[in-house]
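Why does residue order matter? Because the sequence determines the fold. Keep that principle in mind as you read this record.
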Amino acid sequence: MKINLDIIAEELSALSPRRAGRQKSDTVKHNLQGAGLYEPQTTLSPEICYAVSADTITETFFCPSGITLAVIGNADEDMLNAFDADILVLNAENAHCTFSDMFNALNSVFLKYQAIHARLTSAVMKNAPLQEILKIGEELFGNPLILFDKNYCILGEADSRLKKLELVCDKWSDSKMLSIDMVNAIKTSPEYRRSSTSSDICFVSDEYFAYNTLFVPVEGNTSPLTAAVMETDRPLTLVHRQLALYFAGILRLALGRNHLSSGHSLRFEDFLKELLYDTQIEQAVIDRYLLAMNWKNGDNYLLVTFQTNRFDKINSIYNNICVNIEKQIAESFAFYFEDNLLTVINLDHARLSKADAVHKLSIFLREGLFHAGISYVFFDFSTFSSYYKQTLGALEMGEKYSPHEWCYDFEDYVLHYFMHYGTSRTDGRHLCHPGVVQLYIHDLKNKTNLLETLRTYLELGGNAVLTAQKLYIHRNTLYQRLKKINGIIHTNLDDANTRLFIMMSYTFVDLLGLSPVES
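Structure:
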């Protein structure tokens, strides 16, 4: 871990440090990894902070360009500012320290951060528990450290020192989370509003939150996390922002090794499963979970259920498949449920039409040997389970009536579904309009075509001209047939419900492969 003079100055604040040199404006770059004694005859490294006594700073002093110096004692300020170097002046007289004491103090700063870095990287490499990484992080900041998921659920344990935090129990995970009032207070702070558009580190004062707090975004391969450094033991400074960037990188390494669960992903998954189990959830709670994904009720969504043909029901395999699905389609969330893989897609955020989303999945589906059931586009998560049932219905009807296809849209199979389950207790023939049965019998006995004539007439909206053209008969012949049909079925074809009933009867016959009368 490399540090800079800002960090050193903060650690040695008792020695009244001040900056000097031409490069003193460059305060963010971390380029130092150790301390050394200044020897003008040796090759000097830009990664070493060289300690030098102020007494040696004279007009003959040689200062190479681009080095870093820790000047111990009082030296001529104008002379120091003329050097093309990064300089930190430490006042030995006020601290009543010798040069050796000051150098040891300087060196101890590097040893401290090197030790913390070694422990953090070791913890990541050995997949240490989350709490262990956070505890080491607390030594880095000198303050309590908490990791939140996007729902502001705490990952790990809440520090006992944080008495002012208003925590509630998350219903779906039994973990602690910030209260809604606290979350709303954070989001009203000016810096939070500014940083929310750029994903920068932000400072929220105790005017808006329980403590002065640095919120540090941690973007990884999973859902974003937020590290919060809360000021209890040590005042937060600009140096803490620099350290926060470093620590966020450590957490990203841990996420990259699949060590840390993002927390939010599992909780959002549990929330969706509760909806699938038809658990009654208040709209405010639904809105909160959607907000965690930057989604909202009113967006257009699509649910896709992948039915697998795999025999190896191994969670790790399905977890990898879910990750691949989410990579394939932006603004999607995939999870495993009841031996199926479910994917929710926010079509608005992904800027996709329903057809585009299905097209994006086509290669994935064929390569994975999956069948997919697709719901209607929906916008209300309170009825989420209904759309899951649609996908199951699409899969069931699709495999029954179109077994060679791989993707089944419920929109294309809703009539099949309706007819299939509408005739589950009663033979479809017995649900047909009586007039259809009578016309079928009449045609069978008299070798006529009245059944097809009526169907064509209704399909064309009662347009006699178009019906005659399609049947290749004269209009007068059509009128004669319609008169005969009316004499057989004694039904008012001007009634919309009657026309619907007759057309449904035709659909029963077609979809179920029946004839109106049992042979």
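The chain has 20 helices and 17 strands.
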